[in-house]
Automatic annotation (TrEMBL):
This is Nucleoside diphosphate kinase. GO terms for biological process: CTP biosynthetic process; GTP biosynthetic process; UTP biosynthetic process. It holds the Pfam family NDK. Its EC number is 2.7.4.6. Residues 3-140 form the Nucleoside diphosphate kinase-like domain. PROSITE patterns: NDPK, NDPK_LIKE. The lineage of its organism: Eukaryota, Fungi, Dikarya, Ascomycota, Pezizomycotina. NCBIfam families: PRK00668.1 (NF001908). It comes from Chaetomium thermophilum (strain DSM 1495 / CBS 144.50 / IMI 039719) (Thermochaetoides thermophila). It catalyses: a 2'-deoxyribonucleoside 5'-diphosphate + ATP = a 2'-deoxyribonucleoside 5'-triphosphate + ADP. InterPro entries: NDK-like_dom, NDK-like_dom_sf, Nucleoside_diP_kinase, Nucleoside_diP_kinase_AS.
Length: 151
């Protein structure tokens, strides 16, 4: 495993339901480093770009409408194997299949209201981070706890 970055977002339902702090707390307590964070409503075109891979799916219009229905908390988290581990912390796409203890397994029921997003590969993470953040929004800082989190 390598030190990676991933794009994690609290979707509009997660923001409306007051789950922002809880979701941040999970990544923070796990030991990952917060690299960037903002509350945004980026608009339809941006969201269509974010989910470009899914544009031919029947649920695509509904997905974009949902993602455009309120503010989103966009974040970049860094750490060892964080792309795969972030997905594991999120749980399965369909919350009914997400294990309890995961974000979706603890807070969601419907696939179209699954509370949070996480990049599914290092390549997609790089693409998504570049879409959602300007280079100068990515903050370089040293975690004082680093020696207690990594060997
Ligand atoms: P994930 O968000 O786990 O990466 P994905 O990239 O395949 O899943 O799909 C993006 C989002 O689209 C997903 O979080 C919820 C929605 N979605 C996926 N499959 C769906 C389906 N069969 N019906 C309705 N919405 C769906
Ligand atoms: Mg995905």
């Amino acid at each position: 495993p390598a030190i990676e970055r991933t794009f994690i977002a609290v979707k509009p339902d997660g923001v409306q339901r007051g789950l922002v702090g809880n979701i941040i707390a999970r990544f923070e307590a796990r030991g990952f480093r917060l690299v960037a964070l903002k509350l945004v409503r980026p608009g339809k075109e941006h969201l269509e770009q974010h989910y470009a891979e899914l544009k031919d799916k029947p649920f695509f219009p509904g997905l974009i409408e949902y993602m455009n229905s309120g503010p989103i908390v966009a974040m970049v988290w860094e750490g060892l194997d964080v792309v795969k581990t972030g997905r594991a912390m999120l749980g399965a796409t369909n919350p009914l299949a997400s294990a309890p203890g995961t974000i979706r397994g603890d807070y969601a029921i419907a696939v179209g209201r699954n509370v949070a997003h996480g990049s599914d590969s290092v390549e997609n993470a790089e693409r998504e981070i570049a879409l959602w953040f300007k280079p100068e929004e990515l903050v370089d800082w040293e975690q004082s706890q680093k020696a207690w989190i990594y060997e």
